[in-house]
Each structure stands twice: as C-alpha cells, then as structure tokens.
Amino acid sequence: MLAASARQQLDEIADALVEDWRAFSEDALSQAEVAAGLADVVSRMTDAVEGVTRADIGLASPLTRRIITLVRRRVIERSVALDPADSLPLLRALEAVAASVEPGWSEHFQDRMTGPSGLDLVVEVAHDLRSPLTSILFLAETMLRGRSGPLTPLQERQLGLVYSAAFGLNAVASDVIELVRGGDRLVGHDKQVFSMTEVLEAVRDIVLPIAEEKGLELRFEGPRNDRRLGHPGALNRVLLNLTTNALKFTAEGFVEVKITELNDELVECSVQDSGRGVPAAALPTLFEPFRRRQAGGDYAFSGSGLGLSICRKLVESMEAELSVATAQGEGTRFFFRLNLPLVTAADGLFA
Questions:
Q1: 63-94 pLDDT, tens digit each
Q2: Rounded Cα–Cα distance for residues 100 and 57 (Å)
C-alpha cells in the first residue's frame, strides 16, 4: 500500500498544480481538464506502487507529458521531506507511468508515416521548416546589405555563413517537398531569356563564405556569349547544389564552376573539385535518394542523398544527363550538356 505520508505529499502536489493550472495553458483549455489529467496520473502512480496493472494504457497527450514533467520536479523538490521509503517508490511509480503511456508512440508514428497520409506528413514537416528558414534568410540578407547598420568584416563573414547554412537547409526542405510530389514541378514549362553571368554570380554570392571559411580557391568561368534561352532557376539550383557538395568534400585546393560554350545551341556546365574523389563502391547508388551510407565517412551529398537525386531530376527535366568523372585522391567533376539557344537583340526577346 502507498504510505500515508507519501500519498499526502502526492495529493498536495496535485492540488498545487491544479491551482496553478495556467502553467498548462498551452496544452489545456481549463482548470477542469488539468484536474482530470492530474487525477489520472496520480491514479496510475498509485496503481504502479501497489502493483496493479492498468489495461487502459494509451498514447500520452502533450498535457499528460507536461503533468508528468511537473509532478516529477515537485516530487524531487519534496524528497528531502520524505522518508526514502516513500520518495523512491513515488519516483519509480512516476517513471513507470511515463514509460507506460509512451510505448505506442513509435508504432503510431510509423503507422502514420506508412499510411495513406504519410507523404502528406512529410510535406507538412518540410513546409514547417521552410517558414523559419525564410525569416532567417530575409534577416541575414537585410543585415548583409547594411540596412541594420555597418558590419565589421568578421560579422559580415559570419552572417554570410549563416545565410549559406539557412539557404542550404531551405533547399533540403524544398527537395523533400518536390521529391514527394514526384518532381513534376521541378522545371517550369516556359523557357526564358537569362544571363549566364547572373546565374554564376548568384551561386558565387551564396557559396563564397563557405569557401573562404575553408581556405579554398573558388573559380567561376562563364561562356563568351552570355544571353541564352532556357530555365535559369533550375540551372542555378543544380550548380548551387553541386558547388556546395564540392566544397563539403574538398579539404584543400579549389572548386571550379564552369560553363563552356560549345556552339550557338549547346553549352557544357561543370563543377570540379580537388577533393578526395568518390569511392568506386558509392558510384552505383550515387544519385539514389534515401540511400544508406556504408560507413560514417562515406561520400554522400547528405545523409538522405536528396541533393544529387534532385540535381539529376532537374538536369533530366532540362533534357540532359548528369554525369560524373572521379578519381580517388584527385577530385571529382560533375558535368552535363544543355541545349540553350543563343539569344541576340535581333531575336526581339530581350526584356
């Protein structure tokens, strides 16, 4: 049986928490709801101490988790006034209750993920990630442009790294959304006139802080004829992903981003690094999403492998093929050839 002194302490804790029910305001709508939740936890604790098995165990609600956390804190605070023979059973009972309401959570999550709404849940999580990241990008860009006052060179470099990191995370969230949706909207149907130089400069602005932090030489080379007709957003994203990847796996030397004009219609885009190269064993699954690494240091754009998978889909959507050439200890070169017709003023397409 639960000792009278321990039961009294438990009841006092519950009464105090009911009075201070606003501490649960994020998880409960009323004092009555808090009182009911506390009564349930206290009842479960009493049963646990007395060895009674509860058959109505279910998933813990946010309110239940909050109650258990606060009851645990109050029991520990009062333990100095309790005999160890009373306090230890209370703590053990509380942990037993906490454990009993959680076992189904993993199974519940797995059922949700593998059920009809699983992909919708993934998209919702990715959207939730993008909202705060968008705010970080906006604030970092505002500060980098000096709108919040002058920056020291160190602050400017640090903000550049913050921006690059947030941009990369935002891209991962976008990759998840687009991959779940099948990649049908990766590239718009309408082509537009764009500047190859502007695409390269946009990539350079984002990755430069990363290169400077690692002490790497960053090279950019564009074609002689700048104006082309194509999908600048998709091209920018592929080059940015590949360049970020190259910087990640290059410890010293350089990363080179190059667009070579082959003729008035065709250009070759490439990203080359002086890194460690891709192991032969990794090549067969290099472009597969959600692949597993064989070891912690294995080559992968990310733990999920989404980056290179999205790059390949983007390139294929532009009717090209993403290829890789690599040698252990010598570096890696990703490249693809795009049909991007040259545009001149005589074509009447300039904005």
A1: 777 788 888 878 777 766 666 666 777 778 87
A2: 7
